[in-house]
Amino acid sequence: MDPYKVLIEVVKTSNFTKAAERLYTSQPSISRDIKRLETMYNVKIFEFTRPSIRLTSDGEKILKYALQRENIEQELWQNLKNDRKEVAGELSLGSSYTYGEQYLSQKLIEMANQYPELHVNAYLTNSDTVLNNVKHNVVDIGIVEREIQDNTIDLACIAQDEMVLIYNQKVGFNEKQICFVREQGSGTRIYQEIGLTNLSLHPYLVEINSNQVIVDMVKAGKGFTVISKSVLDEEHHNVLGAVKLDVFRNFYLIKHKDKYQDNNLNALIELFQCRYEE
């Protein structure tokens, strides 16, 4: 038991036995805790003047410290309690390129509107790097483009996307064209390969680590690609042809199982999850 709390209780009750009752312990235990303080500071804390006890001058000094310590602890608990109601501070988020480029900005705007005192630093990279950064606490939370099988990771689906094959309408499409794909480690790459397999295509592949550059290459008639339908806007549809593949994928929010979820992190997780559930 904390000997300072014991001292305060003994002074309040002016009795070792009553202090023991109020602290749900024994009178010998109370005596041992007071003795610990006396040994620590090499002083005498109480003078015994039957039937009462009183503090020595050194005991008064230790009591003053004990009370200050208790006040500081109570203030700390109050601050922590208040902080649990507050959403303020900083968080870091790692996102895959596709989700980051197409969806993340809107989520960050919603977050800023709801919680103006919470600042989220977002980093875009491929899914493998996001996973690695979450596992090593480089970022607080991550968004990836494929399901993760890892017993250190919690994941939740937050959005669904459709993959399509696109090509330049003027040039047309044939299987001998170059196919632009994302780099290994990208969640998009996995679904690009699934789409090509479904069409029994085995084209020459050129890796590019940017969805935008890939689309620009296809618009320029340099080849074709399999890409997220969400990447395409009205302007793209005027130039590009699209082939449905019946290939869908999910985006997942991931965090380390041992990551402490404070109020800030809970607010961020809720923002992503509740919108999808609705």
Q: How would you describe the overall organization of this protein?
A:
With 278 residues, the chain is α/β, with parallel strands linked by helices. It has ten helices and ten strands. The chain has an eight-stranded mixed sheet with strand order 4-3-5-10-6-9-7-8, sandwiched between helices. A two-stranded antiparallel sheet has the order 1-2. β3, α5 and β4 form a beta-alpha-beta unit. α1 crosses α3 and α2 crosses α3. The longest helix has 29 residues. Pfam families: HTH_1, LysR_substrate. Belongs to the LysR transcriptional regulatory family. Keywords: DNA-binding, Transcription, Transcription regulation. This is LysR family transcriptional regulator.
Give a short synopsis of this structure.
By secondary structure, this protein is α/β, with parallel strands linked by helices. The chain has helices at residues 3-13, 16-22, 27-41, 57-85, 97-114, 127-135, 187-198, 211-219, 234-239, 263-277; strands at residues 46-49, 52-55, 89-96, 118-125, 141-144, 153-168, 179-181, 205-207, 224-228, 240-256. The protein has an eight-stranded mixed β-sheet, sandwiched between helices. Strands 1-2 form a two-stranded antiparallel sheet.
